[in-house]
């Protein structure tokens, strides 16, 4: 692995889940932004990883296989990142469970659209399907984009987001996959779990509990749009006593998003610790 100044991004989404760019375009964008180590972490799928690995040789970018899972803990939605070696992400148990989860999340998204319709919105499910990848999980991100397009931009993004937040008309948390089960699944398939963007967890008292369940990593370096430096400093300190190691990334979903690829300053040690744990040959 390269030493010195190396741009790192360990949290990136593509069109395989709820990102807006194809895998090839993500790799090209990463290269142009001088990112040399990245992880694809699409929701409930690793379908883009093999393509990324093939393209990475052309662009001299190191790829770490990953996935992001929506899990539930004490009735709250908690996101968990899983990182794997080049055999682990193809594990049959992982792929079988991911397929089930994609189907469950799509069914939940359908119910969200029905809730919007009952509240007077005329958005059709077919409009959401046109935005989503047919092999991926349909999520609230797809519905939000479809609703924005359907309303011709007359509803501002903050107003759309509120519809899907607790007490919003379309709010339906995904509670089919427990945090504990997700952690066990990742470990059973040779991976390592990392608690994603802890600053977005509603009840901050849960963060310590989640880190204490089993040794897991903590995503410290993240593109929070508010109080970024304060939150990163807080989780750096928490990670020293509670986490297996730290990671970080942009949580990139598209060029129109609030944070772009490589924008978050992630220490090289994050990638080194992850690669060492997984025994990856990068």
Automatic annotation (TrEMBL):
InterPro entries, sorted: PHP_dom, PHP_domain, Pol/His_phosphatase_N, Pol/histidinol_Pase-like
Gene3D superfamilies: 1.10.150.650, Metal-dependent hydrolases
Single annotated GO MF: 5'-3' RNA exonuclease activity
Domain of life: Bacteria
Polymerase/histidinol phosphatase N-terminal domain boundaries: 8-73
Protein name: Putative metal-dependent phosphoesterase, PHP family
């Amino acid at each position: 692995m390269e030493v010195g100044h190396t741009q790192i991004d360990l949290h990136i989404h593509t069109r395989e889940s709820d990102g807006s760019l194809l895998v090839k375009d993500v790799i090209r964008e990463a290269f142009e932004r001088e990112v040399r180590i990245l992880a694809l972490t699409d929701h409930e799928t690793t379908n883009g990883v093999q393509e990324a690995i093939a393209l990475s040789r052309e662009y001299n970018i190191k790829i770490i296989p990953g996935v992001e899972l929506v899990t539930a803990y004490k009735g709250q939605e908690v996101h968990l990142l899983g990182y794997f070696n080049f055999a682990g992400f193809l594990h049959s148990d992982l792929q079988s469970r991911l397929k089930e989860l994609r189907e469950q999340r799509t069914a939940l998204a359908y119910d969200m659209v029905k809730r919007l319709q009952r509240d007077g919105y005329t958005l059709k499910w077919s409009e959401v399907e046109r935005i989503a990848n047919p092999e991926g999980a349909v999520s609230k991100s797809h519905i939000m984009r479809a609703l924005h397009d359907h309303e011709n931009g007359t509803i501002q993004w903050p107003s759309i987001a509120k519809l899907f937040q607790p007490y919003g008309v379309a709010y339906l948390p995904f509670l089919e996959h427990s945090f504990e089960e997700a952690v066990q699944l990742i470990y059973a398939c040779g991976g390592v779990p990392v608690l994603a963007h802890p600053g977005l967890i509603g009840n901050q008292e849960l963060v310590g509990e989640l880190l204490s369940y089993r040794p897991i990593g903590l995503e410290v370096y993240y593109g929070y749009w508010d109080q970024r430096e304060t939150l990163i400093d807080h989780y750096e300190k928490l990670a020293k006593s509670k986490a297996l190691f730290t990671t970080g990334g942009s949580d990139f979903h598209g060029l129109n998003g609030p944070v772009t690829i490589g924008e978050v300053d992630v220490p090289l040690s994050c990638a080194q610790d992850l690669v060492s744990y997984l025994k990856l040959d990068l």
